[in-house]
Amino acid sequence: MKNRNVFFRPIVVALSGLLFGWLLLRATAGHAQTNPAPHYVIGFSQCTTADAWRQAMLAGMRKELSFYPNVTFRLKDARDDSRRQQQQIQEFLREKVDLLIVSANEAEPVTPVVEEAFNRGIPVVILDRRTTSKLYTAYVGGNNVEVGRAAGRYVGSLLGGRGNVLEIEGLAGASPAVDRHRGFAAALAAYPGVRLAARVQGDWKRPSVIRNLPAVLRAHPEVNLIFAHNDRMALGAYQVCKQLGLSHRVRVVGVDGLAGPQGGIQLVQDGVLTATLLYPPGGEEAIRTAMRILQHQPYDKENVLGTMVIDSTNVLTMKMQTEQLAAQQQDIERQQRLLQQQRDTYASQQTVLYGLAGALLLVAALGLLAWRALRANRRIARVLAGQNEEIRSQRNQIQELAERAQVETEAKLRFFTNFSHELRTPLTLILGPVEEMLTTGADFTAAQRHDLGLVRRNAQRLLRLVNQLMDFRKIDVGKMPVRATEGNLVAFVRDILDAFEKPARQKGVALRFLPAEPTVLLPFDVNILDKVFFNLLANALKFTPERGQITVSIQPVPSENSVRVSVEDTGRGISEQDRAHIFEWFYQGQQPGAQGSGMGLALALGLTRLHQGQLTFTSLSGQGSTFVVTLPLALPAAMLAPAGSVPAAPGLAQEELMAAPAAGAALAAPEAAEAGFATGEGRDALVLIIEDNEEVNAFLAQKLRPHFQVRTALDGSSGLRLAAELIPDLVVCDVMLPEISGLEVVAQLKGDWRTSHVPVVLLTARGAPEQQVEGVQAGADLYLTKPFNPTFLLESLRTLLSNRERQREHFRRELSVDTATVAPAQRVDQKFLADLTAIIEANLERAELSVEDVARSLGISRVQLYRKVKAVLGTSPTDFVQSIRLTKARQLLLDDALTIAEVAYRLGFNSPSYFSTSFKARYQISPSEYRALHTTPVE
Prior knowledge:
By secondary structure, this protein is of the alpha/beta class. It is built from 31 helices and 24 strands.
């Protein structure tokens, strides 16, 4: 009996525990059922769901409702019919919803039924479109008057205070359309030069714009900006402008700023719209306000949502923020689905538990499972709450990062300005003594006077660039005032044009000046317009070829109360891809040509707008470009200089003009690609000819082209630049060159490790022995006197290339199989290899070491490094790095303390298997076999 009690006691204890757990679960479930969360029914009367903005509003509501499973949400779509909306609100009243949300189609027809709901005690939240009554519980939506004002201010600033605007309005009678027009017109009143040329009535939809706008644009060709009351109508306006060929001239601004592939943010990023005004749908805020009302929590009656302008300056930030929020919302929805699955699991288990109450053991087991599910639900709920808090924290972090980025940008610009100021002092100390030495008539040699002139011209050029940087900063912060005085614009432009007469004549370019009248009087700031016209003329002179023509014309336009100054050239024109960016700061473009600072045209545009003018251009590829400056004949009183002040004379120096590149629109040629580089003998070898006599230059090219690739230069500066860029296999150079002599060219080529390996042949008419010795001492590999035998020259070049190949083999043999280092020597090439090898060996453990990293450490470009290594060693930098790693591996494998894997990672290989494969491919033996072969086991 005692044994039987011992046997049953654990069973009884277990059953008692299970029964207690089941009763506890019952009590917990009963308590949860006696205190359920209150259930609410919210009715939403929407004017329409047919557009993306309304769908975004509804999506925001559903997103916020996902946090309230105890709310039933009912939607009725009026489909833009006010009578239907009245009937649907009456239906909500009969259904006795707990709260009503209304977004009215039209204000007046819906107001009575909204007042009836409010008077019945049903809370009413007005969303987006107001009614004509104050009988509502709360309002959520944007301030359409402020949206209109913001658009007006942006348009006035964008047009520089002058222009003609067309407004496309929303549905007649809708409060957003009325308020947006009122705010837009009020803001434009602050810009007298901006005229509202026409208004087009729309219905918030694109087809109405496509149908009505073409006739209005034909009647008002002066329109240069369109403001549409939403982005859908703005897209229609852009399509009409594109169809009429006006998209390059007429800018379009919309309202909504929705995210997504067809939203306003994407349209701005794609360049379809110039800007869009953010008008939040307010769905989330409407549900939050409704829940605060239903839960008897404090709330605001007026909940006005903010707005902002989204244009090219902030569209990427806005897009990234919206995409991150969308991803976070997807994560929340995924967690909620998991939570619902757990709830469903719990419900099904609870049902089974109650159905099997007669079987105590089974019920207890199911109760235990239900308890565990409950714990999981609570854990998931805590995780979800934490993620919600994290999302809120991330939103705040995004805002803080945006503000911090703005502060950092401002700090960089301040540093930029301060640095430009600091450059002025040393430039002044350079220019002062140089000017004094050149003007005092000191006894200098011709070469010394030439060098001093070179210093002065380049110092003046650098000073002008510094001044342009400072002007850029002044314009950016609005600290460059206009001080205009009455003057003759024709005489002013003629004085500037005279400074270009000599350089144009030297280049063989004809200058024409065609003023429509001998005198055009208007107030203008001499210093500002001097910079504008100087940059335009310098740019035209740069891109106008020999025997070309530059025409400057002045034409008053009394009907527009303005005057136009056009600078037309017969150059190559501006490419299609560069036209959209030609006025951007520091843009150098993709078109081949002389490289500039990328500031001139941007500065000219900023200064012209500062002067209340406009700068436009037209260009045809291969036919030239025309830049037109339009200036007003009258300026505001705030821009006029005090009476009696004398305008400063423009400070243009012909020396500066000769030295300075065309600032601004210089379209730099892209760096030559590696694929075009060739080394070795025969037809693939590249020969650079530097000869100032064009006939001799052409003769040499003609004789050598059947046997080599040939590039030519007419002076030493161009030759040195091409040599550094191309890294040729051989250079043929004349001794007597302008500015930089052939001997100086040789010395610089041999002193620069990028070109130190290149053989140089000097050609000269001076055949004295001491002159030949001088050439050889400068570093020339061969000295030939004119006239020379072309066949002898050709064979000499082939011999030099063969010697170069043998020298390349010599360098390769210096890379010993037992060590990865190259012994430094006096020769420049060996010094280069020593530096290159040292950099590679110092970074062997870096698996991510790239050719770009090595080139950056040497202070050169990736292409130059490739060409130098290819020319000296006959291999690529990547193969050279791999060779050093594998050579170093043979040393490390002799150390028994290191495993093969450790050797692989120490040498920067991503995996031991890749190391073994590379080692065996190089030495036809695996690392383990190599170690076994070269290490002696301990006896």
